[in-house]
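Tutorial sheet, problem 5. The two components below are modelled jointly, 214 residues in total.
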Amino acid sequence: MAQLPRGTISVIFVAQRTDADAAGYARAAAMMEALAVQQKGYIAMDSVRGSDGLGITVSYWTDEASAKAWRDHPEHTAVRDSGRDLWYSDYSLHVAEVTRSYDWEKP
Amino acid sequence: MAQLPRGTISVIFVAQRTDADAAGYARAAAMMEALAVQQKGYIAMDSVRGSDGLGITVSYWTDEASAKAWRDHPEHTAVRDSGRDLWYSDYSLHVAEVTRSYDWEKP
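Model answer (structure tokens):
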């Protein structure tokens, strides 16, 4: 968690997991996270999944070109197909440009 | 979960809960959600908390003025003070304007 510069691109992924293939999903999620952090323009990621299988992952990128390059990364694309086939019943993805950002920590 | 119009304002709130005051927090969270949906310009909200206490809530608003009006709502402001005093150890808040939005549901 951190304050983000104005113009940062946030990619908000809200997804409902199915019950299928927990092990395969966990492997792929760990792989994608490890791969994302290596990409040009990657800043950070916040990710939470609730006990009902609903998850929100927000990744932050320095610019639109970096976010799009990650979207089009061949391994990411392949994993997205498995997501549709197996892991998710529905999802939304919103790309949004940061206009204000705050950060607070208990003193 | 839904596709959002370009220009929608997303408010991304990422917060780490303390262990304190679970009942008070649950009451306030339910109250705030009920109040938010009544505000002018409110579109939707996605919210998840993990077992480690990390939570992400994203609320979506038709425009910046509506998002700011909700930020400045007196009851919301009062609850934010309790958040800092009791419920959260740290949080980030990012306001971002939607440029692209997708929605998928298993056929």
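Marking note: The domain at 9-97 of chain A is CATH 3.30.70.100 (Alpha-Beta Plaits). Full credit if you identified this.
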